[in-house]
Amino acid sequence: MNVMRLPKESVAKTLADARADFPILGEKVHGVPLIYLDSAASAQKPRAVIAAMLGTMERQYANVHRGLHWMSERTTDAYESARMAVARLLNAREPEEIVFVRNSTEAINLVAHSYGRGVLEPGRAVLISEMEHHSNIVPWQLLRDERGTGLRVVPVTDAGELDLAAYERLLAAGPVGLVSITHMSNVLGTVTPAERIIRLAHEAGAKVLLDGSQAIVHRPVDVQALDVDFYVFTGHKLYGPTGIGVLWARRELLERMPPFLGGGEMISEVTFERSRWAHVPHKFEAGTPAIVEAIGLGAAIRYVEEIGYPAITAHEAALTEHALARLASVEGLRVLGQAQDRGGVVSFAFERIHAHDVATLLDRSGIAVRAGHHCAEPLMRRFGLDSTARASFALYTTSGEIDALADALAKVREFFH
Amino acid sequence: MFGDLADLYQEVILEHSQRPRHGKRLACFDASAKGDNPMCGDRVQVFVKHAPDGAIADVGFEARGCAISVASADLMAEVVRGRSAAEVKEIAGKFRALARTGHSENPDDEALEALQPLAGVHSYPSRVKCATLAWHALLAALQGRKEASSE
């Protein structure tokens, strides 16, 4: 698998010099250095990822799983080694439990389609929470509208945490087939108590899907220790490219689920009378996959492993604590949520200044934040807001950048008063 | 610190966004329409009262949105008073061009002169829709529709 060998100098040995691995962080916007605090929307890419993708396209590329030639075999090796990297990252029992998809949205739609329509018993409801991203709301609404599958919503407390008492009541209120909940809120930064959610769901006879789009960036995830049933995440928030995401599920669930998309790659035999499906995971990977992107994701995972979750988690916890302290001292600024367990995502709003105006002013200081409803409109409504600005941190974020944000926010307030 | 942002957030804009003069639902109105910008969540509802001759007697609005969208709605309400639907349509077209390009064909035109402070949005492509949202809603109301989308 020589395609995966990366230039030594591009691999960070420690977190302290990791910043230099991200070429874009040296860019300027509006003549000032870029301060990128929008990693929860999409993270920047280290040279290792860029090099792996470029190297594939420049030296070793063909379609996978079909050509009986050298290039195709080498590319297939690299593609499947990315699957192994994902399996290792999640501590999956075997790489066959890893299905490559485009992103978390597609992964959840796959489960809603194949599990929701093919396996979930009629009469059993789906449980989601009030802090879900639209991608973990709408697929279940489509299922409800088509099949009459019940959809119940676990509320969020004023502190921005999952209301566990309400969760237990909803589990007891009628048969539940699947609990589909975020592992970490993209708005509040709240990390949900996954072990407890899963234990209670299993006691009630329900399976659990965790949306790990945010969580996997900040914390190690062990699907076997969690005892979860489905886990989804997207590559581009984990320093990988766009267009590649992951569905992990227990093998026995994948075996029972009918295919999602039909086409090439996912069959073992096709006649006009009938077709037989390929084994998992290929049953769920119709058509030519995102080959270069999967290889890029493999490189991103190796990069994260090289730095190590202990260092990443500690760094981001310190940044978050620093950010909460600094933002609390900005007059008139409200920070959403005070969850006990939270990751590096902080949403905030001024009483009388709209989030888009805040974002435009920050942009002129080189600071990139997200502003809007963050694809979580029900949660915004829960907190009585139309929109917030959100700063999110990554392994390359510095506390100096957070100081710059707090200073700029104080100036924003002056500007509008 | 915010450099050339003074072009976008001119005093006039800040004034109209913080203390809009027409930012209220009219007690009685003849037409009304909502505008919605789903990408950024800005919302506006425009209320129109006609004079006996069909011209616009008064415009009020309720808005939840950024400084640009509120200020633009307020300036619009001032500019369209006493004008016919045809005139409003013409001004709306010229204003859209002003917001997109930063220039207007007849800058001496009284209405466009009043709207000139919003010309700065042309440098911020993602904010042009904020400035034009209320105009879309007003045109929808004048056409008897209840809703307008921003583009």
Give start-end ranges of low-pLDDT stretches of chain A.
1-12
Strand content of chain A: 15-25%
Q: Give Rg of chain A in angstroms.
A: 22 Å
CATH topology heading of the largest domain in chain A: Aspartate Aminotransferase, domain 2
What is the straight-line distance between the termini of chain B?
33 Å
CATH class of the largest domain in chain A, named Alpha Beta
How is the quaternary structure best described? heterodimer
- Major sheet size, sense and barrel closure of chain B: 4 strands, mixed
Name the chain pair whose interface involves the most residues.
A-B, 20 and 22 residues
Classification by helices and strands of chain B? alpha+beta
Biggest sheet strand order of chain A reads 4-10-9-8-7-5-6
Low-confidence segments of chain B, given as residue ranges, are none
- Looking at the overall shape, the CATH architecture of chain B is Alpha-Beta Complex
> Please, how many helices of chain B?
6
Question: What is the approximate shape of chain B?
Answer: globular
Number of DSSP-assigned strands of chain B: 4
